[in-house]
Amino acid sequence: MELHYREYGSYRAQRPTLVLLHGLLGSSVNWHGIARRLERHWHLLVPDLRNHGRSPHAEPMDYPEMAADLLAFLDRQGLDDAVWVGHSMGGKAAMWLALRWPERAAGLVVVDIAPVPYRHGFDTILTAMEAVDLAAIGSRRQAEGVLARYLDDPGLRQYLLQNLALENGRWRWRVDLQALRRGMGAITGFEPPADSSGYPGPALFLYGSESDYVTAAQRPRILELFPLARLRMIAGAGHWLYAEQPEAFVAALESFLRSAVGGRPRSPADDG
Which of 72, 118, 62, 109 is nearest to 87 (CA)? Predict the structure, then answer.
């Protein structure tokens, strides 16, 4: 599978490429603001995961397949490794890849998710999206009206509507809703590769102070699989911490890159 992607900055041998991975029902667009903040100093690749954005639709929708897609993506870019930065579902895909192919991960940054199963349900969200009659609506506003019957949060509705595209005069969801519904058990779960003994490289787990996705009870499991992991809280942020506290997120990320991964921002001499 050939994943669609966005590219920021330019490759420099003295510092690693960053691959940013979005969460469930998101796309590469979600990382645009952060990528623009980082592109002066770093080379970034931001793919759409399978069944999301402009990437192909395919099943199964699980972490082994997502990780295999990403490994093939790295190969097509001609890169031996990268620093993988993943939010939520993207974080789980990055963890699975690092556990299965640690030599392809120069570093790992996991954003507000842990390597554990979750009970968060997405059935109502998928039902709301399926309820939109794509042949009958004439605007995004009409689609939002349908979503509002199921979902009270206007921010969530706007997030979902980023997936609604008008192509050749017809509306369609860019995400494959049926593939996501069939794969939801695998997406909310997490089963590490059977032959993995853990990821021996540098890892940073960032979590929001107002989020319940990463808790003290999960710390032993994180350190079991990622023994060099650092855990850092971003104050005043929920699950979408990179959108809610972008400056703090970028500061934490770049501090990790400098100290643990060995990357350094580009200096003026590099531009000469």
Answer: 109
Specify whether 194 is located in the same domain as 103: yes
> Residue 270: which pLDDT band, with cuts at 50, 70 and 90?
very low
111 and 153 housed in the same domain: no
Domain that holds residue 140: 123-181
Rounded Cα distance, 266 and 37, in Å: 13
pTM, 2 dp: 0.94
Mean pLDDT of 105-116: 98
| 66 and 36 fall within a common domain | yes
Mean pLDDT lowest for which of 19-23, 54-58, 130-134, 256-260?
256-260
Write out the two tokens for 39.
Answer: 């592109």
- Give the Cα separation of 211 and 244 in Å (integer): 12
Same domain, 173 and 148: yes
Q: Rounded CA gap, 249 and 107, in Å? A: 16
- For residues 246 and 221, the answer to whether their CB atoms sit within 8 Å is no
